[in-house]
Amino acid sequence: MFCVVILIEHRLLGNIMNFSLLRLHPQMLLVSGFAIALAIVLSFSIGDLKHSHQIEWLDVVGEGGIVLLTILWQLFLLISRPSGRVTTLLTIGLCCFMFSSLLDALDEFIHYPEQAWLPLFESVPAPFGMILMTWGLYQWHQEMLTLNAQLRRREADVREHGRVDLVTRLYRADYMREQINQLLNKRNTNFCVALVDIDQFDAFNRRFGHPEGDRLLREIAELILMNVRQSDLVCRYAGDRFILLMPDLPLKRARQQVQQIASAVKHLAFKTGNQAVFHTLTTAVAAAQENESCASLLLRVNQRLEQDKQYSGEKQRAPLYHAGR
Ligand SMILES: Nc1nc2c(ncn2[C@@H]2O[C@H](COP(=O)(O)OP(=O)(O)OP(=O)(O)O)[C@@H](O)[C@H]2O)c(=O)[nH]1
Fold first, then answer.
1. What is the DSSP letter of 149?
2. 168-199: per-residue pLDDT in tens?
3. Which of 237, 240, 316 to mutate to test the pocket of ligand 1 (most atoms within 8 A of CB)?
4. Which end of the chain is more exposed for a tag (fewer CB within 10 A), N or C?
């Protein structure tokens, strides 16, 4: 029956606390055990046991309770923290405090001779331990400040990743809008915006499947990035449409750059299964104008793209399939 109770308790405590971390602190456990053993050996070797009627049981409960709680604190500390300076300072501080408290509790049972130096041990380690613990807690506070700063930085990274399209690894359209707005707010209209749309992407998707469509989007995104300047920004606008921001580039040069991208994509033999598929792009470029909003600039370039799509016939834009590698 007793064994069953111990087993249940062990299971319950095991679920609440992870005692496996104790294995990480063999030296600290040794120090703690040594402090307990030293206090017991010193007390019993110097003094004599009191008679039961001399024992103040209220003091035993109070002082014994402090010892047990100090041991519990050490246990919590060691199962919660990795080894290191903070853990060492706090454990040794607690050990000193516990050593004094244990001597204090034991003298309820043991009578010391008048000239014994043991009471000195009772009073000195406790304040020394408190100083060590205070220093340890200050170091812990510093450690928490550093950890919090790192967590905040990581959180900012995660938030930033939320703005990146998972298929192409390009920023999404809202990031582009932000960048355009920033330029327009600074009254800087010395930039061009271009839209690049893959022709007949829906047909490609239906024929080769969504995963292959994703792969094509990634390849084209990389090709676009390879054909722009360092200062240009490329984002995924929507579906099979990309958007480019080209600062400090006149309209004519921006058009040439977008033409180069279209030409690079046209010559890309995208291998899927046994076939090489060639794609074309429909593109539109617009230069920002004075007092224009981001929305109206994007509307203008979108309208130009739609006009181009209607102008070029379906046959001309259909993907070309070449059998064999
Ligand atoms: N594989 C894949 N397909 C996508 C993704 N986002 C959108 N699409 C598909 O892209 C296709 C876009 O279709 P449309 O807008 O008709 O474009 P299109 O077929 O190129 O037609 P045109 O632009 O007129 O030539 C749809 O089939 C969408 O399902 C994506 O992340 N991955």
1. H
2. 989 999 999 999 999 999 999 999 999 999 99
3. 240
4. N
Ligand 1 centroid to residue 286 C-alpha, Å: 23
What is the number of the ligand 1 atom nearest to the C-alpha of 317? 25
Homologous superfamily (CATH) of 171-323 is: Reverse transcriptase/Diguanylate cyclase domain (3.30.70.270)
CA of 209 to the centre of ligand 1 (A): 11
Give residue 203 CA to ligand 1 midpoint distance, Å.
8
268-282 burial: b if 16+ Cβ within 10 Å, else e: bebebeebbbebbbb
- For the cut 60, the answer to whether the pLDDT of residue 14 exceeds it is no
Confidence tier at 313 by pLDDT (50, 70, 90): low
CATH 3.30.70.270 placement within the chain: 171-323
Burial code (b: 16+ CB inside 10 Å, e: under 16) for 132-141 equals bbeebeebbe
Interval 247-265 mean pLDDT: 95
Ligand 1 centroid–CA 210 distance in Å is 10
